[in-house]
């Protein structure tokens, strides 16, 4: 097409449009897209952009940590105002592989692995390593599947869990994982300081122990001081920028790799030439080789026998006749090689574990002479356990060594392609664990290597005191132990920096999601997006871990948090796989729900194996966070798996409910509440929702519906506004349920559609609640009360119960009512709904102090005394507490007031039908008739005191005869004959209307007399006439029936029993 051609006119009248979705780079031509090629779709371009536009937006989309927002939640209005931020450039190696590797090849491997092997033995260490590595590998598979199922912005593991399991689970587990990552930083810093003060510069210790018993306390205090300084330095490095952390990471990792190679070289060298690290034994006890050079009691110098430095440690003086320690005197000193070599056969000695309490001496399985008194052993230079050891403790201490798989995913916001980098980097890093521990299936694990090369007493020597304070794993290396010391030092530094880099970003992602309100301040950062406030909080929490000062005490704590996170990663993958949601399309194909389920089970088992009380505390913390988010902040819809699971469960339950109608014992009011809206689309009667809440002690379904007149195309926005208005009213009235707004050509059809189609399957309403049309007489539109009557007919035809509340605006809101009564007038049997409703109301705090009274009406031929007894027995079997009263109503003559009332009613109805009155005249006429009606009723009330005998509580034969004789007296003031003589026009009245009005008047007198002071009156609602010609008269009958009563609930049963005496 030519650029100058005219285009099809748009709906807004603009003939041509410069599309914002097409990138036009040809500035010389200056042509604009005129929409001719796609004119057929032109009017929908605003809502449905062209494919080229969509692809362009996706190409420019960056999942930056800086101000990150999900693309589906992005605020388009801010798009033009956002600053251009440099895209993240981290690839797989720097962004994922290095962080994972630095955390995996960390503090536990270098500082505790040999001690774990020596304490647990090769077999049990093999089990520990196998369980932990299997758990990590299975979790890595699940995480890779989730990570390749879409864009992974900042937040990493938190993002993956929250979008898979929902904001509640995601927030709870995300915060727990954040705490775990933060405590991991504390653990790495403690490891750094332990290496520094124990192996590199012991003289730098500020606190020094004067006695051996004070050494542990001095070490802890030194760890606290130096740890705080190290934390401050690392936090400053992270604050300066993550790029510096990445630059340092390369240096740190190089040192780590050299350390690993040195260990392998040392293992090979032990076959030919084992290193010389002598260990001194006194009897079978291992000695700390710090303060003596020669492993002997005495030596011969110039043909003289002199004592050594070792002698002075156990004796009171250097003299040969000095008093010495009993065990020292009874046993000889022997020297063994600490690293006997791979072919020495020491593996058989290290096969089994050697657990014991704190203070237990590290002993070799050789003969010795025990001392009679062992109280002085703790003051002697023996190597001893610093903590009580057992299998489960070692599991908790070892597990952090395999927790590095999340280090890269935490920094997903800094990756160029998180979907590609996370699985590749993570899965490649896992074999590094396998390389170090020599692979539990294919390679020799490092457990076997350590057990085969190093003497058992040296393995159990945590701090290398028996080998002159050398790092135990360093004694195995070649060419020097310092290679391992320096490598492990930098490894711990790097891992600490990675933790302090990842944890603030994780917290920032949680804060920016807004699911935890009080954390929102931590979503802010520097201009480049660095999480400054989150880093500050991370440093404070990390400091609390440093103050613990013991690596062995911190490790089990962070193991719990990591295991909980891994558990939910596996759960998320298994859940998404089993639900088979259409959006579950990961590019990583090597996963299966069974593997994820196995990983989840293994994580749960390891939590309780490591420490059952830590596991319970971690679960309690996660549970509290979950409930807090659910209560305060979780208003997100992320298409999570828990929602999908709920949908599946709901579908299954609905299908089961559809199989058969509910039994009477399971019946509960499933309410459809019909609301009216004003011109501003606000709810007219919000107290109807309050009453619904108070009635829902049955915990049934609630559907709140309303109807707008018009067509959906023209009133779509009004329908949404009305729905939002109703939801706001429901929230204000604490009504839990569903909202449904229907747009229909008229209100009559709209309410009919709601009654017929609201609900789904077995979860359909069985009761309709609505307000009484109070102004039906004054209304200039007769359709309002006709809709009301048609609604009654609809519910009857649908076999649904109907509840109509009169004066609903006077119903209680949240204030508790004082002691009073709920009066039930049981005129006809409706299935028991009249008696069930007060019971449900009494379960709510508003009505709890109200007592139930049940009134029933006895006719002439009824035995009222027996009726009362039978009713009391019936209530007893129903387990309902209520007062019973039987009211007797005889067939009295029709009063003049009744005739007058009927006459006024018919005259009004006739006039409104035959005369075409204007709106003003119609309102004036209606008001005039209403005034006459009120005056006539007032005249009747003045004469009511003259006939108190019209209601008798007990019938007897004498009373019956007296009443019949009185009614036959010719001078009776209310005789029909006299009435017709007085007003001939009454003879033309419809006798059916006269009888109905008579019933309404007489019953109203009785109800007002008994229940005018009740908090609520429940009445049987009579059905509308079969002929629609009498609809207006029916409204008048109901009005008369409820006249003089404040709160009334008309009840019409649904045609089935809703209450039973059987269990």
TrEMBL record:
<dbReference type="GO" id="GO:0006884">
    <property type="term" value="P:cell volume homeostasis"/>
</dbReference>
<dbReference type="GO" id="GO:0055064">
    <property type="term" value="P:chloride ion homeostasis"/>
</dbReference>
<keyword id="KW-0597">Phosphoprotein</keyword>
<dbReference type="GO" id="GO:0005886">
    <property type="term" value="C:plasma membrane"/>
</dbReference>
<dbReference type="GO" id="GO:1990573">
    <property type="term" value="P:potassium ion import across plasma membrane"/>
</dbReference>
<feature type="transmembrane region" description="Helical">
    <location>
        <begin position="557"/>
        <end position="578"/>
    </location>
</feature>
<dbReference type="GO" id="GO:0015379">
    <property type="term" value="F:potassium:chloride symporter activity"/>
</dbReference>
<feature type="region of interest" description="Disordered">
    <location>
        <begin position="1"/>
        <end position="33"/>
    </location>
</feature>
<feature type="transmembrane region" description="Helical">
    <location>
        <begin position="590"/>
        <end position="607"/>
    </location>
</feature>
<keyword id="KW-0472">Membrane</keyword>
<keyword id="KW-0630">Potassium</keyword>
<dbReference type="Pfam" id="PF00324">
    <property type="entry name" value="AA_permease"/>
</dbReference>
<dbReference type="GO" id="GO:0007268">
    <property type="term" value="P:chemical synaptic transmission"/>
</dbReference>
<dbReference type="GO" id="GO:0045202">
    <property type="term" value="C:synapse"/>
</dbReference>
<feature type="domain" description="SLC12A transporter C-terminal">
    <location>
        <begin position="814"/>
        <end position="1063"/>
    </location>
</feature>
<keyword id="KW-0812">Transmembrane</keyword>
<keyword id="KW-0813">Transport</keyword>
<keyword id="KW-0406">Ion transport</keyword>
<keyword id="KW-0769">Symport</keyword>
<comment type="similarity">
    <text>Belongs to the SLC12A transporter family. K/Cl co-transporter subfamily.</text>
</comment>
<feature type="transmembrane region" description="Helical">
    <location>
        <begin position="125"/>
        <end position="148"/>
    </location>
</feature>
<feature type="domain" description="SLC12A transporter C-terminal">
    <location>
        <begin position="686"/>
        <end position="804"/>
    </location>
</feature>
<dbReference type="Pfam" id="PF03522">
    <property type="entry name" value="SLC12"/>
</dbReference>
<keyword id="KW-0633">Potassium transport</keyword>
<keyword id="KW-1133">Transmembrane helix</keyword>
<feature type="domain" description="Amino acid permease/ SLC12A">
    <location>
        <begin position="96"/>
        <end position="271"/>
    </location>
</feature>
<feature type="transmembrane region" description="Helical">
    <location>
        <begin position="91"/>
        <end position="113"/>
    </location>
</feature>
<feature type="transmembrane region" description="Helical">
    <location>
        <begin position="421"/>
        <end position="441"/>
    </location>
</feature>
<dbReference type="InterPro" id="IPR018491">
    <property type="entry name" value="SLC12_C"/>
</dbReference>
<feature type="transmembrane region" description="Helical">
    <location>
        <begin position="249"/>
        <end position="272"/>
    </location>
</feature>
<dbReference type="InterPro" id="IPR004842">
    <property type="entry name" value="SLC12A_fam"/>
</dbReference>
<protein>
    <submittedName>
        <fullName>Solute carrier family 12 member 7</fullName>
    </submittedName>
</protein>
<feature type="transmembrane region" description="Helical">
    <location>
        <begin position="225"/>
        <end position="242"/>
    </location>
</feature>
<keyword id="KW-0325">Glycoprotein</keyword>
<dbReference type="InterPro" id="IPR004841">
    <property type="entry name" value="AA-permease/SLC12A_dom"/>
</dbReference>
<keyword id="KW-0868">Chloride</keyword>
<dbReference type="InterPro" id="IPR000076">
    <property type="entry name" value="KCL_cotranspt"/>
</dbReference>
<feature type="transmembrane region" description="Helical">
    <location>
        <begin position="169"/>
        <end position="190"/>
    </location>
</feature>
<feature type="domain" description="Amino acid permease/ SLC12A">
    <location>
        <begin position="385"/>
        <end position="672"/>
    </location>
</feature>
<keyword id="KW-1003">Cell membrane</keyword>
<feature type="transmembrane region" description="Helical">
    <location>
        <begin position="387"/>
        <end position="409"/>
    </location>
</feature>
<dbReference type="GO" id="GO:0055075">
    <property type="term" value="P:potassium ion homeostasis"/>
</dbReference>
């Amino acid at each position: 097409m030519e650029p100058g051609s005219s285009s099809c006119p748009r709906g807004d009248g603009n003939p041509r449009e410069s599309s914002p979705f097409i990138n036009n780079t040809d500035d010389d031509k200056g042509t604009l897209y005129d929409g001719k090629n796609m004119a057929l779709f032109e009017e929908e371009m605003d809502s449905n952009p062209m494919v080229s536009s969509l692809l362009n937006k996706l190409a420019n989309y960056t999942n930056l940590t800086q101000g990150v927002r999900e693309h589906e939640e992005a605020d388009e209005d801010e798009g033009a105002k956002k600053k251009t931020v440099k895209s993240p450039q981290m690839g797989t190696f720097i962004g994922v592989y290095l962080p994972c590797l630095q955390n995996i090849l960390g503090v536990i491997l270098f500082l505790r692995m040999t001690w774990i092997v020596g304490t647990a033995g090769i077999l049990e260490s093999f089990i520990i390593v196998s369980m932990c590595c299997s758990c990590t590998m299975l979790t890595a598979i699940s995480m890779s599947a989730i990570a390749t199922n879409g864009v992974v912005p900042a937040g990493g593991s938190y993002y993956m869990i929250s979008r898979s399991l929902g904001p509640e689970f995601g927030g709870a587990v995300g915060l727990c994982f954040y705490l775990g990552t933060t405590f991991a930083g504390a653990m790495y810093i403690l490891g750094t300081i332990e290496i520094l003060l124990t192996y590199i510069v012991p003289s730098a210790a500020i606190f020094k122990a004067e006695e051996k018993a004070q050494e542990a306390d001095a070490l802890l205090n030194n760890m606290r001081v130096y740890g705080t300084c190290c934390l401050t330095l690392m936090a400053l490095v992270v604050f300066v920028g993550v790029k510096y952390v990445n630059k340092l990471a390369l240096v740190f990792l190089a040192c780590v790799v050299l350390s690993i190679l040195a260990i392998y070289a040392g293992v090979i060298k032990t076959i030919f030439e084992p290193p010389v690290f002598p260990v001194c034994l006194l009897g079978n006890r291992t000695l700390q080789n710090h303060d003596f050079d020669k492993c002997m009691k005495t030596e011969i110098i110039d043909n003289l026998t002199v004592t050594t430095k070792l002698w002075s440690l156990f004796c009171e003086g250097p003299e040969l006749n000095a008093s010495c320690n009993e065990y020292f005197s009874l046993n000889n000193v022997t020297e063994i090689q600490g690293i006997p070599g791979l072919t020495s056969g020491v593996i058989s000695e290290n096969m089994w574990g050697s657990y014991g309490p704190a203070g237990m001496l590290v002993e070799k399985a050789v003969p010795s002479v025990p001392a009679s008194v062992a109280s002085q052993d703790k003051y002697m230079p023996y190597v001893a356990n610093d903590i009580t050891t057992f299998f489960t403790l070692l599991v908790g201490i070892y597990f952090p060594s395999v927790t590095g798989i999340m280090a890269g995913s935490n920094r997903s916001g800094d990756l160029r392609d998180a979907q590609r980098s996370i699985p590749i980097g993570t899965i490649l890093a896992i074999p590094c664990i396998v390389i170090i521990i020599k692979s539990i299936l294919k390679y020799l694990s490092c457990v076997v290597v350590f057990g085969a090369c190093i003497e058992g007493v040296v393995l159990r020597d945590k701090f290398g005191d028996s080998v002159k304070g050398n790092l135990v794993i360093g004694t195995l290396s070649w060419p020097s132990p310092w290679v391992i010391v320096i490598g492990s030092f930098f490894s711990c530094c790097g891992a600490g920096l990675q933790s302090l880099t990842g944890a603030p970003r994780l917290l920032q992602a949680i804060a920016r999601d807004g699911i935890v309100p009080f954390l929102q301040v931590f979503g802010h950062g520097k201009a480049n997006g660095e999480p400054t406030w989150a880093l500050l909080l991370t440093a404070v929490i990390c400091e609390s871990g440093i103050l613990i000062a013991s690596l062995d005490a911190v490790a089990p704590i962070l193991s719990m948090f990591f295991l909980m996170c891994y558990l939910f990663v596996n759960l998320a993958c298994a859940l998404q796989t089993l639900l088979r949601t259409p959006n579950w399309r990961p590019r990583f194909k090597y996963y299966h729900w069974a593997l994820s389920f196995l990983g989840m089970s293994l994580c749960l088992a390891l939590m309780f194996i490591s420490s059952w009380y830590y596991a319970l505390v971690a679960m309690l913390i996660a549970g509290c966070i979950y409930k807090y988010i659910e209560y305060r902040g979780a208003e997100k819809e992320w298409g999570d798996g828990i929602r999908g699971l709920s949908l599946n469960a709901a579908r299954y339950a609905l299908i089961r409910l559809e199989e058969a109608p509910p039994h009477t014992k399971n019946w509960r009011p499933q309410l459809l509440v019909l609301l009216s809206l004003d011109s501003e689309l606000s709810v007219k009667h919000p107290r109807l929702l309050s009453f619904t809440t108070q009635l829902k002690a049955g915990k049934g379904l609630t559907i709140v519906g309303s109807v707008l007149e018009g067509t959906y195309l023209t009133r779509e926005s009004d329908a949404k506004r009305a729905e939002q208005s109703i939801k706001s009213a429901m929230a204000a009235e604490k009504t839990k349920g569903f909202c449904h707004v229907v747009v229909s050509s008229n209100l009559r059809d709209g309410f009919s559609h709601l009654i017929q189609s609201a609900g789904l399957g077995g979860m359909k309403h069985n009761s309709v609640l609505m307000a009484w049309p109070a102004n039906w007489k004054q209304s200039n539109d007769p359709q309002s009360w006709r809709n009301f009557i048609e609604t009654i007919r609809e519910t009857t035809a649908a076999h649904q119960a109907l509840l109509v509340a009169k004066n609903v605006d006077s119903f209680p809101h949240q204030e508790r009512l004082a002691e009073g009564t709920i009066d039930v007038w049981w005129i006809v049997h409706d299935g028991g709904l009249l008696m069930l409703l007060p019971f449900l109301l009494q379960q709510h705090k508003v009505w709890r102090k109200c007592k139930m009274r049940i009134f029933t009406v006895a006719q002439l031929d009824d035995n009222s005394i027996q009726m009362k007894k039978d009713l009391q027995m019936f209530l007893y079997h129903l387990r309902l507490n209520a007062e019973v009263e039987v009211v007797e109503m005889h067939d009295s003559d029709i009063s003049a007031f009744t005739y007058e009332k009927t006459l006024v009613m018919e005259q009004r109805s006739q006039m409104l039908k035959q005369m075409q009155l204007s709106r003003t005249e119609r309102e004036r006429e209606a008001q005039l008739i209403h005034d006459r009606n009120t005056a006539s009723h007032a005249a009747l009330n003045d004469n009511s005191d003259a006939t108190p005998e019209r209601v008798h509580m007990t019938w007897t034969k004498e009373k019956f005869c007296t009443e019949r004789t009185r009614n036959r007296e010719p001078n009776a003031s209310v005789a029909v004959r006299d009435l017709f003589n007085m007003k001939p026009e009454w003879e033309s009245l419809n006798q059916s209307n006269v009888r109905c009005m008579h019933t309404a008047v007489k019953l109203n007198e009785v109800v007002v007399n008994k229940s005018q002071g009740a908090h609520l009156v429940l009445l049987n609602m009579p059905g509308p006439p079969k002929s629609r010609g009498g609809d207006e008269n029916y409204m008048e009958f109901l009005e008369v029936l409820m006249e003089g009563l404040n709160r009334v609930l008309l009840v019409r049963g649904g045609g089935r029993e809703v209450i039973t005496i059987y269990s």
